[in-house]
Design brief:
Radius of gyration: 16 Å
Helix content: 25-40%
Strand order of the largest sheet: 1-6-5-4-2-3
Distance between the termini: 33 Å
Structural class: alpha/beta
Order of helices and strands: EHEHEHEHEEH
Mean pLDDT: 74
Number of helices: 5
Largest sheet: 6 strands, mixed
């Protein structure tokens, strides 16, 4: 059964054994020109749009046009775009095939996310997974995939009910370690807030 990951405020979870060590992640990122945090000397970006968005609750395909979750996904994608203030798609609705993910560019890509409305036949490969499961997918992305490696979003049962999105961070305030912290956030400002992250913002 899909997990409801949302609780008030930041939640810290035990370190999953299969996540890549942060040092390896940083080496991979730096080798491709992407940088995060104080250890990055390649650029000043703390985050690197677009951000993966994982749907972990099932989208039933009966009476699909009226399906509330499909409408929620479209609404969250659209509201995040409208709230970005720069009219950009910063959420990429993830599928299992890395080949379909945005490709790396020399700068954070503001227009490489998923454009709403999504196809009515969409089926998420991440149904029933938790934040650690999808973090492994994110950490396993090839060098050429242009998605932030530490920050991502989740659509769970709480998102279906509230129209909000769960934002997650891999690592501590220095983006080191394997802990995963989650926040429930309004879709209207979700990507704007992620895209404008600086050191310490997440923990304030």
């Amino acid at each position: 059964m899909p997990l409801d990951l949302c609780v008030p405020g930041p939640t810290h979870h035990p370190k999953p054994p299969m996540l890549l060590p942060a040092s390896r992640i940083c080496k991979q990122l730096n080798a491709t020109g992407e940088g995060h945090g104080p250890n990055s000397s390649l650029n000043a970006f703390w985050t690197w749009p677009p951000f993966a968005l994982f749907d972990v609750v099932d989208v039933p395909h009966k009476k699909i046009c009226a399906d509330p979750l499909l409408q929620t996904i479209n609404s969250i994608l659209q509201r995040a775009k409208d709230g970005s203030t720069v009219d950009h798609w910063w959420f990429y609705l993830a599928v299992s095939d890395y080949a379909r993910a945005p490709k790396r560019t020399d700068e954070p890509s503001s227009e490489a996310g998923t454009n709403a409305p999504i196809d009515a036949s969409f089926e998420s490969p991440f149904i029933g997974q938790n934040e650690f499961d999808v973090a492994r997918w994110l950490n396993g992305k090839p060098k050429g995939v242009n998605l932030d490696s530490h920050f991502f979003g989740l659509l769970d049962k709480q998102a279906e009910k509230s129209g909000k999105v769960v934002l997650c961070r891999i690592g501590d305030s220095h983006l080191e370690g394997n802990e995963v912290t989650c926040l429930l956030w309004d879709a209207d400002t979700a990507t704007l807030w992620l895209g404008g992250q600086h050191y310490g913002d997440w923990d304030d």
